[in-house]
């Protein structure tokens, strides 16, 4: 029996609140806090049991410390934005409470996807005797656990990993992002990068494309991107020779993005406008559809998985582990679309592993560092069933 403090009342926060509320034997008390309290209240009103809601500016460490001291949670589950990771980690350190998030810290003024800022807390968390679990969403998150599971059950040595992320859903808007537009567009417009034979290879944004055949969805144009889980998997999967990350984008999405980039609307440096400093990407977020509102009309599926090549007992082995999720089904259950759902469910499951003592440690951890089995069992139990496809390969 534990008390969880959820920070962030966006699409992912909604799913986390719903999923925690469905498991009262672990999360017997829930506090949901965010910058705008009315959003917490709207989520609370949709839940099957009462929770407490609060207002907090999580950029302010002392506000976070006061909130933690008031409610004394066993765990702080951060699904606000990546900018808040460090102030929330600081507050957890000061109060001696465990921490979990779904996305690595990013500085506001430069799009960087690196764990170095959060890994730097390792010694301080260890000394304090608390635990931080980083990246407990789908990718990062479930994809890391799929890697640990493949390593444990299917391979002596994994040689190549391709993480393949397809959203084959249709929301009916000409252009919208599936999670926070600012974070999503920063991720896509940066240079692509993959790791091969001990080196990072950088490429121009969206310059490598393949048609990948996704389970239950079919072939889709996919682009090589850099994604944060590559950094920890390179460290933690032994014998690895290459790791890449692919994501699908439709022609319409890419055309809109190209235009927005060309006219300067994706810039993250301030621009003087009518005597005020504005950041074009922040303004763009204000005029785009709220990702949380997309679920109403969203149809179709996500199909996300990991394709492996390696050896077992001296023989070459290819396989894929994947999950398929239906937007409309997710909306029916939680009022959120599948991208929020596939992030929020693993956040609850990661928290459950920590609170039930299945995943324990002192310090800062990535998902693949723990036994994947209890997490994989819970994916099947709480709405993200996974499958293994033997013989699946990807073009080099
Ligand atoms: P949203 O933008 O929908 O929600 C973010 C929430 O955080 C909003 O409610 C916002 O408040 C709140 N917030 C922002 N700043 C602060 C602050 N300073 N203090 C308190 N609350 C704040 O984002 P999503 O729900 O789509 O995404 C949430 C997180 O999940 C992000 O970090 C995202 O990167 C991550 N993610 C991870 C994925 C994975 O697979 N690992 C996939 C998708 C998302 P307000 O409503 O007032 O703006």
CATH topology assignment of the largest domain: Dihydrodipicolinate Reductase, domain 2
Give the biggest beta sheet.
Answer: 9 strands, mixed
| Model regions low in confidence, pLDDT < 50 over at least 5 residues | none
Instruction: Spell out which ligands are present.
Output: NADPH dihydro-nicotinamide-adenine-dinucleotide phosphate
Task: Assess the beta-strand content as a share of residues.
Answer: 25-35%
Domain unit count: 2
Q: Count every helix, treating DSSP H or I runs of 4 or more residues as helices.
A: 14
Q: In angstroms, what separates the terminal alpha carbons?
A: 48 Å
Radius of gyration: 20 Å
Mean pLDDT: 95
- Helix proportion: 25-40%
Which keywords apply here?
396 residues; alpha/beta; Rossmann fold; Dihydrodipicolinate Reductase, domain 2; 2 domains; 9-stranded mixed β-sheet; 7-stranded parallel β-sheet; 14 helices; 18 strands; 35% helix; 28% strand; binds NADPH dihydro-nicotinamide-adenine-dinucleotide phosphate
């Amino acid at each position: 029996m534990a008390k969880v403090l959820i920070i962030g009342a966006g699409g992912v926060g909604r799913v986390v609140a719903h999923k925690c509320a469905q498991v009262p034997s672990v999360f017997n008390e829930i506090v949901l806090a965010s910058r705008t309290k009315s959003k917490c209240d709207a989520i609370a009103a949709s839940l099957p049991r009462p929770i407490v809601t609060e207002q907090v500016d999580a950029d302010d460490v002392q506000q976070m410390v006061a909130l933690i001291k008031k409610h004394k949670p066993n765990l702080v589950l951060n699904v606000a934005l990546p900018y808040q990771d460090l102030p929330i980690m600081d507050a957890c350190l000061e109060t001696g409470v465990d921490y979990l998030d779904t996305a690595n810290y990013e500085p506001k003024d430069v799009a960087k996807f690196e764990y170095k800022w959060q890994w730097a807390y390792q010694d301080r968390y260890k000394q304090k005797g608390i635990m931080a679990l980083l990246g407990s969403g789908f990718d990062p998150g479930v994809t890391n656990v799929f890697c640990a599971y493949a390593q444990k059950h299917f391979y002596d040595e994994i040689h190549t990993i391709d993480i393949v992320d397809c959203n084959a859903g249709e929301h009916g808007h000409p252009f919208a992002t599936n999670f926070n537009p600012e974070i999503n567009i920063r991720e896509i417009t940066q240079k692509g990068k993959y790791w091969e034979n001990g080196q990072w290879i950088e490429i121009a944004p969206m310059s490598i494309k393949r048609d990948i055949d996704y389970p239950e969805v079919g072939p889709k144009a996919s682009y090589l991107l850099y994604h944060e889980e590559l950094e920890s998997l390179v460290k933690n999967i032994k014998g690895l020779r290459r790791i890449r990350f692919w994501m699908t984008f439709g022609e319409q999405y890419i055309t809109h993005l190209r235009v927005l980039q060309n006219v300067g609307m994706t810039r993250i440096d301030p621009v003087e406008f009518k005597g005020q400093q504005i950041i074009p990407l922040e303004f763009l977020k204000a005029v785009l559809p709220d990702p949380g509102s997309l679920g109403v009309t969203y149809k179709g599926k996500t199909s996300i998985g990991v394709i492996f090549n390696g050896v077992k007992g001296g023989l070459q082995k290819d396989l894929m582990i994947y999950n398929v999720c239906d937007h409309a089904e997710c909306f029916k259950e939680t009022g959120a679309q599948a991208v929020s759902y596939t992030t929020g469910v693993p956040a609850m499951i990661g928290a459950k592993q920590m609170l039930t003592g299945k995943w324990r440690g002192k310090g800062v951890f990535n998902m693949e560092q723990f036994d994947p089995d209890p997490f994989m069992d819970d994916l099947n139990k709480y709405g993200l069933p996974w499958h293994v496809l033997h013989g699946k390969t990807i073009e080099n």
